[in-house]
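Hi, does anyone understand the following?
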Amino acid sequence: MAAHRVAHVTLKGPSVVKEICIGITLGLFAGGLWKMHHWNEQRKTRAFYDMLEKGEIDVVVPEE
């Protein structure tokens, strides 16, 4: 019986290019989420001040 030779994958250190690509991808994804959040907050603030200017809402509680 001949001994079978099994090819094992040798573990290497981290690939610098792969790490940079993963970092850029995660950074762009997180930045995109942050910008979407920021634009949503701007839209809410703009809508609030538009309604306030038109007189649809009031920030002062009326006295009874």
Notes: The chain has a mean pLDDT of 88.
